[in-house]
């Protein structure tokens, strides 16, 4: 899921996202709550209407960014008090308000408000944090069940008649546990958005989040308690927070054993091209990471031959494509020399083209994984090459 | 001609420029000479190959930017010594080196090296400057005639086979005086680039520039002396340098009387949407201005209802399109509220979408002027509305 923090995947217009075969993007509730504000988005028919994105959207609960971005955080049983990183204003997030905000934003999939356990943390901290998350999950669900009909989808209104209804076939409904999200024919990358309208799910899908730090037993307990509350999909949170990668894999593999096989499994905040293939092979269904987009803005480009740092002098007169094995519009048209020049000149087009390529690389990789899955095979790519610098 | 300063029209990928019906873009020799350097561009087959632009390109001589951007300029009969605004390094431009650089960059149309007379200037200054430009024009042409075969078009090489030859039908050849530039069927906005290949002009076209400040008699003399040297096209330089607009029009109208009717007439550095219609009606054939692109980056958008400053609070929840009479991809998809949000959030997509719209507005305006011309009519648009703030 490309990350579209404030209702935009930085630098990439929505039609190009569609051309890349993007099925779902992620929006950050913390940021959107601060600017432009939930009410503005609600009045535009939710995020789909506001940003003219007719496919699927997932919002996180804001919990993680409250921890990582804001100042003067104070956590109580009730919720979290924090100061906006934008203007220092004071705010209070609770499970109820986080769900309320996400209902107003109208994403197809929304997340329970959780506490992302810091790393490292001792046993008592991991337990306390996990149990807080479990209590917050129950409150999230309760509020959701009482207010889910308030989702602003019926007020969806955009300038063009082309985008009349959001994300029909992509909506994970509360009743089918998100299965419809995965059953969409993924072979057709370029769907005509118009055929997606006419009927839509009436509510969003709220996913629960498993915590428990780096303790397998706590993770098992967290999974069981979250399942006991009952959600149409489950995420594994609190990883990729500084732990060694081998530990990440261990916890993912272990936690997956306790999650139902017939509901989507979402591993939050990962990963490199190598990692997303690896975790998909373990059984993860959904992932999000700022890496492809953020790295792109720093001129770090993932290719089939390894990582390319496009600012390097070696590319200054290189007339070849960025990645000879890539079919994206950047590799089909522009040379490395040009991309290097754009980056060296601090041109906006550098950001735009670099991001398009990196997203293409990630999305094509996932497309190949899906293909392998459909053939009943484990994905076998030279993916170990991808995360290393190109020779 | 959209301005693509350092081989990019800021934020807009080349395929979108093509979709907008862009026939020709402008590159700045001063900037490209400094970065990435003429040699790099030459080795990529010139600007067409370097930036993957198969349509027409015009480069200015660098003269204007030397005056407006660089430090410690010293002008002699020989040329101009200046320091780069990038790193303070010292450089020397002459008519010969300016033409040499432009040959290496390989644009279809290149400009004589001139002195842009400052404003205001007294009679003696205007005369001296005009005469220097005339002597430099002769030197420019002499150098060009001796070296024009060095244009790097035959070394054109890009990753995709789709762009094999530059700007065939758009090239203004030395023999037909640029008439082919204007005879291209302008009704088809979306040309398949591939049909433009297979044959191309073997050399560039060098245009002369008329100076003479704000003195009609000097302008007449400058025109006559430039025509006497002989060029396939003529530009009017040294305007829009701070003079009152009524004076600009007066000098344009007066100078045009002395330029041949059967060669392109290029008015440099203008203008607002109102002005480009006005000057086209007077007989100007080509214009360039950073206004549409630069204003876009500042959230100032030209619409059929007047200028919109998209950052204004009044648009925060406006679900309507930016310009209800515009068919561009921005107005067909996004709301004012979203565009405002992007701009307020300092998002790259704001720059991208705003620029696409403003260019669309300018290019569509010129398309309508061409249509009027073909009907033998003077363009009658409510263009007086366009340059005023929207009510």
Q: Quick gist of this model?
A:
2 copies of one chain form a homodimer. Chain A has 391 residues and is α/β, with parallel strands linked by helices.
Question: What keywords describe this structure?
Answer:
homodimer, 391 residues, alpha/beta, seven-stranded parallel sheet, three-stranded antiparallel sheet, globular
Q: Could you characterize what this model shows?
A:
- Two copies of one chain form a homodimer.
- Chain A is α/β, with parallel strands linked by helices and 391 residues long.
- The first copy, chain A, is 39% helix and 12% strand.
- Chain A contains 15 helices and twelve strands.
- In chain A, the strands form three sheets. Chain A has a seven-stranded parallel sheet. In chain A, strands 3-4-5 form a three-stranded antiparallel sheet. Chain A has a two-stranded antiparallel ribbon with strand order 11-12.
- In chain A, helix 11 packs parallel to helix 14.
- The longest helix of chain A is centred in the C-terminal third of the chain and has 27 residues, at 348-374.
- The relative contact order of chain A is 0.11.
- The model of chain A is unreliable at 155-199 (pLDDT under 50).
Q: How would you name the oligomeric state of the polypeptide chains in this document?
A: homodimer
Helix content range of chain A: 25-40%
Helices and strands of chain A, in order, run as HEHHHEHEEEHEHHEHEHEHEHEEHHH
Question: Which overall shape of chain A is indicated by the principal axes computed on the Cα atoms?
Answer: globular
Q: Total helix count of chain A? A: 15
Structural class of chain A: alpha/beta
Major β-sheet of chain A, in short? Answer: 7 strands, parallel
Largest interface summary = A-B, 47 and 47 residues
Strand order of the largest sheet of chain A: 1-2-6-7-8-9-10
- Strand segment tally of chain A: 12
Rounded to an integer in angstroms, the radius of gyration calculated over CA atoms of chain A is: 21 Å
Q: How far is the N terminus from the C terminus of chain A? A: 29 Å
How much of the sequence lies in strands of chain A comes to 5-15%
Uncertain segments of chain A: 155-199
Mean pLDDT of chain A: 88
């Amino acid at each position: 899921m490309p990350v579209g923090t404030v209702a935009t995947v930085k630098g990439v217009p929505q039609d190009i996202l569609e051309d890349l075969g993007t099925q779902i993007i992620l929006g950050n509730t913390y940021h959107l709550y601060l600017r432009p504000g939930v009410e503005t988005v609600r009045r535009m028919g939710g995020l789909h209407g506001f940003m003219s994105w007719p496919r699927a959207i997932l919002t996180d609960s804001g919990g993680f960014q409250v921890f990582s971005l804001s100042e003067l955080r104070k956590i109580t049983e009730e919720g979290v008090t924090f100061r906006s990183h934008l203007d220092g204003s004071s705010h209070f997030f609770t499970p109820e308000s986080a769900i309320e905000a996400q209902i107003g934003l109208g994403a197809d999939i929304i997340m329970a408000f959780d506490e992302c356990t810091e790393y490292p943390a001792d046993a008592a901290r991991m337990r306390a944090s996990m149990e807080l998350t479990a209590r917050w999950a129950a409150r999230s669900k309760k509020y959701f069940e009482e207010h889910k009909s308030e989702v602003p989808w019926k007020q969806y209104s955009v300038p063009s008649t082309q985008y009349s209804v959001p994300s029909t076939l992509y909506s994970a409904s509360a009743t089918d546990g998100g299965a419809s999200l995965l059953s969409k024919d993924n072979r057709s990358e370029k769907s005509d958005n118009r055929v997606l309208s006419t009927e839509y799910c009436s509510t969003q899908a709220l996913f629960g989040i498993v915590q428990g730090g780096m303790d397998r037993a706590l993770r098992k307990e967290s999974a069981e308690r979250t399942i006991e509350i009952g959600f149409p999909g489950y995420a594994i949170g609190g990883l990729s927070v500084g732990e060694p990668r081998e530990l990440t894999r261990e916890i993912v593999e272990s936690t997956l054993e306790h999650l139902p096989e017939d509901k989507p499994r979402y591993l939050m905040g990962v990963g490199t091209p190598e990692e997303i293939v690896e975790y998909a092979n373990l059984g993860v269904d959904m992932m999000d990471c700022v890496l492809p987009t953020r790295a792109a803005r720093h001129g770090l480009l993932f290719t089939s031959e390894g990582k390319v740092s496009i600012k390097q002098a070696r590319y200054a007169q290189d007339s070849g494509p960025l990645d000879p094995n890539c079919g994206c519009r950047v590799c089909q048209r522009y040379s490395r020399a040009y991309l290097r020049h754009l980056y060296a000149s601090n041109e906006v087009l550098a950001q735009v083209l670099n991001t398009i390529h990196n997203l293409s690389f990630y999305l094509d990789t996932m497309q190949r994984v899906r293909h392998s899955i459909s053939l009943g095979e484990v994905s076998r790519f030279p993916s170990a090459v991808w995360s290393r610098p190109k020779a």
